[in-house]
TrEMBL record:
Residues 32-69 form the Leucine-rich repeat-containing N-terminal plant-type domain. PROSITE patterns: LRR. InterPro entries: Leu-rich_rpt (IPR001611), LRR_dom_sf (IPR032675), LRR_N_plant-typ (IPR013210), PGIP (IPR051848). This is Polygalacturonase inhibitor 1. The lineage of its organism: Eukaryota, Viridiplantae, Streptophyta, Embryophyta, Tracheophyta. Pfam families: LRR_1, LRRNT_2. It comes from the Eukaryota. It is found in: Cell envelope. Belongs to the polygalacturonase-inhibiting protein family. Residues 1-25 form the signal peptide. Keywords: Leucine-rich repeat, Repeat, Signal.
Amino acid sequence: MNNSNFVSFSFFSFLFLSQTFLSLSATERCNPNDKKVLLRIKKALNNPYQLASWDPKTDCCDWYVVECDPNTNRIVTFNLFSANISAQIPAAIGDLPYLQTLVFRKLTNLTGQIPPAIAKLSNLKLLRLSYTNLSGTVPTFFTQLNNLTFLDLSFNDLTGPIPPELSLLQNLDALHLDRNKLTGNIPESFGKFTGKVPDLYLSHNKLTGSVPKNLGDLNFTVLDFSRNSLVGDISFLFGTNKTIQIVDFSRNVFEFDLSNVKFPDSLTSLDLNHNKIKGSLPQDLRKLNLQYLNVSYNKLCGQIPTGGKLQTFDISSYFHNKCLCGAPLSACN
């Protein structure tokens, strides 16, 4: 091959390779900055098997665990669950600025505290850090996430008080702090949510004191305060003008007279078992479309009202009271 042919061949070879490279680059949707961050996250998580598809030679929009926005091609979802990972949440997660959904779930060897870098994710709408071994306190920096609609920190080892500042989250639909080791009182600020009124899940903690009265000023849909050491009267959380549907106040030390409590028509599930509630069951309970009822292990007396759905529940819904009687329990004397 003479020199002119060699030069011509080399030029066309270079042109072909350049066009091939440009073609591959053109077809890749993944934002290069997002890809770099994801690869840092993979390394920080010790290159787990669940991220095996995260090959730097491939398009990150096609990787498992993450999703790209179809218009911007930026990473908007990070959903890692049921993986054998021994690590902490990488601070690099805060460098995915378009992230809307962030999930670390069912990762029992995920340890450490919730990193402050999450506060940088201003577009975040759903945050679920649950079923892990995360420890430390519930951060106050969550209040910087103004677009947050769902916050789930359940089934962890979080300690300390509930931050009152969480009531500043105006778009919150649900707050899950259940199954931790949280202490102290339910914040009074939870009666002053400035936007939406979220479903509150605070069960299986070590909360004490009485429920703030101003919670009765709001219309909740779901309240779960079960398995704490809360005390006092909570009858103010009910009323015919309320819209509450699901209530679980079981296994606390609540003490009040149930006789004259008015329940809203919206109520479908009522669990008051293992408290110190006295009085009788209100006749109005017959009017409700209850799917679940448990008032066992209290100090109730009198006849169970006849009618509605009250006789469709078995003995376990009523037993171990002071002198409650009538179907499905034994007849009254």
